[in-house]
Amino acid sequence: MKISRILLLFIIFLALPLAAQARVAVLVHGYLSDAGTWEYSGVNAMLRQAGWQQAGHLGMSPTGFIDQPLPHEQGDKLFYTVNLPSLAPASIQAGWLKAALDRVSGKHPDEEITIVGHSAGGVVARLALVLYGAGKVNRLITIAAPHLGTDKAIRALDAVDDGGMFSMIKEWIVREEIGDRMYNTLRVSRGILFDLVPPAPGTMLYWLNVQPHPDIEYISIIRSGGYVIAGDLVVPPFSQDMNQVPALRGKSKVYITVQGHELTPADGKLLADIL
Length: 275
Description:
The protein is α/β, with parallel strands linked by helices and 275 residues long. Helix content is 39%, strand content 20%. It starts with a helix and ends with a helix.
């Protein structure tokens, strides 16, 4: 009789509906960008089509932290966008991202978080994980991120290097070539540009890539070329693979997409499948 009661209780337990586990993602933009890139690229639309809902937007302002909850129905697939100061050094952006992740964790204390970082946002997210620990984060997905840097950062830094005897002439030539607005933007963002140069002693990536990383899931979405499209002209494919990072060798899953550097609806579809 006692065994029968235990069996009955076990059957009743199995029949009870399990509490729904929410899936939570935080989307991190890259250099010269903001949170809007996920929307106008079509990524958010594809996520919504797959049943994901945007639960809020996070950022910082001169008056403090910005938390903008968005109306959404009860569901188990929620994503947040975050605005970072994309012209600031990676360490500053990582600090802001940590504050945003803490806020999301507070809203979902029982759930794990996936970070999705595009371009420099992927490097910033990885830096935040190394500096502050994973916390509730159990997965990092990077899209076209320069984990081994990009020579475009070197070229940009060289363009605004104001040293040398002929610096004034060089500045005039460069301003004529790229315009005053872009020249000034590159000058004020030299910190993040230096953080994105290929690893060499004394660079941020040289330090970051040998640091112990949290034991979480890593996924690299890598751009490749095709017969019609040239592929990513900003970050070389090998640099986008976290398996090339000494501290993460063999730890990252890889997905290859045939397109350029920018986000497209295809990224939203792929993210929905991965998430």
